[in-house]
């Protein structure tokens, strides 16, 4: 418990194993996502909602210029008012993504409870605060390869939610800012990276200020 408390307080990141999400399911999720992203651009665009919202269901492609050259497939919670858009190819993508969503939701609830207790918050506070799960979403994200003269990736930021759960492939790239330097979050097979968001910072320090 002290290890989690220290990680939440000092870094805002930690990795967990034995988290309940089956490794074969994680592998299948990477496989179907890779299959989809390898499709021709015009076929992938068939599964775009066409919305200009920052987060719209289905396929989305960021601008091709740096540093945001990426594409992603977004699925909202079944309880959301948003209508999900599922690609027909590969055939089992919807089945796999929905299974991942269900499994990760259970793990997220467990981790929230652990964080709640480790940080000394009132019993069940985060569970009650996040009782409406309609805004939860799952994203399969792919960054385009960097070039010799151009890097690629997100600018420094904090997540504004309670927690974000991240699976990384062996390419890595995620970094954590601590004590004035960026530290690589080295991918570990089967591990989940937990990012503690600003909502928890507000709950533990209501008078504080957060965000870049």
TrEMBL record:
Which PROSITE patterns does the entry link to?
A: FE2OG_OXY
Q: Does the keyword Iron apply?
A: yes
Which PANTHER family does the protein's record reference?
A: 2-OXOGLUTARATE (2OG) AND FE(II)-DEPENDENT OXYGENASE SUPERFAMILY PROTEIN-RELATED
Q: Which organism is it from?
A: Linum tenue
List each copy of the Fe2OG dioxygenase domain by range: 134-212
A molecular function (GO) held by this record is: metal ion binding
Q: Which UniProt keywords apply?
A: Iron, Metal-binding, Oxidoreductase
Q: What InterPro entries has UniProt attached to this entry?
A: DIOX_N, IPNS-like_FE2OG_OXY, IPNS-like_sf, Iron_ascorbate_oxido_reductase, Oxoglu/Fe-dep_dioxygenase_dom
Q: What is this protein called?
A: Fe2OG dioxygenase domain-containing protein
Against Gene3D superfamilies, the record matches this protein to: B-lactam Antibiotic, Isopenicillin N Synthase, Chain
Q: Which family does it belong to?
A: Belongs to the iron/ascorbate-dependent oxidoreductase family.
Please give one Pfam family short name.
2OG-FeII_Oxy
Query: Where does the source fall among the domains of life?
Result: Eukaryota
């Amino acid at each position: 418990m002290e290890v989690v408390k220290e990680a939440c307080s000092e870094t805002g990141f930690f990795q967990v194993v034995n988290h309940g999400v089956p490794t074969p399911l994680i592998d299948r999720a990477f496989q179907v996502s890779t299959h989809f992203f390898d499709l021709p651009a015009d076929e992938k665009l068939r599964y775009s909602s066409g919305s200009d919202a920052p987060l719209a269901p289905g396929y989305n492609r960021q601008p091709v210029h740096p540093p945001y050259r990426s594409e992603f497939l977004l699925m909202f919670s079944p309880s959301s008012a948003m209508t999900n858009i599922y690609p027909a190819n590969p055939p089992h993508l919807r089945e796999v993504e929905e299974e991942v969503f269900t499994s990760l939701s259970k793990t997220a609830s467990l981790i929230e409870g652990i964080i709640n207790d480790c940080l000394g918050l009132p019993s069940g506070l985060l569970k009650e605060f996040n009782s409406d799960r309609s805004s939860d979403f799952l994203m399969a994200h792919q960054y385009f390869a960097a070039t010799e003269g151009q890097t690629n990736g997100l600018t420094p930021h904090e997540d504004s939610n309670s927690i974000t759960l991240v699976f990384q492939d062996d390419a890595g790239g995620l970094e954590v800012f601590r004590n004035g330097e960026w530290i690589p979050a080295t991918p570990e097979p089967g591990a989940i990276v937990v990012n503690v968001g600003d909502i928890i910072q507000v709950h533990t320090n209501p008078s504080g200020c957060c965000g870049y």
